[in-house]
Request: fold
Amino acid sequence: MTREEMLKIKAERGYSAAQLSEYTGVPLGTLTKILSGQTKNPRVDTMKQIEDFFRQRSWLPGDLYSYQGEEIPKREIPGYSPETGENTPWMLCEKAIAYGAPLKEQGEYTFSDLEKLPEGRLYELIDGMLFDMATPSWIHQKIGEEVFLAIHQHIRDHKGKCMVSLAPVGIFLDGNRDSTYVIPDLFVVCDRSKLRKDSILGAPDFVLEVISPSTAAKDKIVKATKYMDAGVREYWIIDPYKNKLVVYDYSRPQTHILPLEGKYAIGIFEEELLIDLDRIREIIEEFESIEP
Reply:
C-alpha cells in the first residue's frame, strides 16, 4: 500500500493523526513524518503495521473520540474490557480530564499538563498521548524485584558504572521535558549524565516491562516502537499470563520469544549476566496459588 493510498483511506474514514496513531500503535511523530513524506524510506515493519490496520480493521470509525465526558460505545476494540470500561488508549484522555487535565486531543498533551493532575495516580505520556497507569500488582512487584536484585548484584560485583532502578522513577525518553514521559517497571541507565534528581533525561540502555492484560497492547506495540526510536538498546517484556519472555535486541536488531525456562542473558552486559527464568516462573506459580 502506498502513502497516497493510506492518505486517501485516512481522509475517507475521517481519522485524525492522533486517532490513527492510537489505532495502529505507531508513535504520532513517526506516523506524521511518514504520511507527510518527510520520511523517505520508512521501516518495512512500521509500514506493515499501518497497512494491516487499514486492511483488517475498517470497522473502527473515525468519529470514535469523545472528549466531553460522554460514554464511548462498547465496541469490539482491541484491549477494551466491557466489564471495567478501562484501558483503551482513546478512553484515557477522558479519564485524565476527570482528574484535572485540560481538554485536549490525544497527541497534544505535554508534561506540564501531566503535572496539573492530582497526586496519587500515575500517568505516562507518549508522543503527546496520555495513558493512565494501573496500580502494580503483587506479581509485577515480585518479578521486578527478582530481576532488579540480579542486575544490582552483577553491577556491584563488576564495579560497573550502570545503575538499575524500579518504578516509579520516570524517564523523559526523548531527552527533553516535553511530550514523552514513561515509567517502566525496571530500567538500566549506563550514561550517568542522563541522571536527574527526580527522573532520567534520555533513553536508558535496558528496559523491562511486566505486562498485564490491560497494558499488553501498549507495552508490545506503542512502547516497543517508542523505545526503539528513542535509542533503548534492549527491551524485555515478561508476560506472566502466557509464561513468555519477549526480547527486543535493538542493537542487532533481533526479536526473541521464549518460554520462562532455564536462564537467559541480558545483552547489554555482554551476556555475562544470566536471569533465572525458572525462578520467575516459580513466582508466577506462587501468585496463581494465592486466594483472590
Observations:
- The CA atoms of residues 18 and 107 lie 5 Å apart.
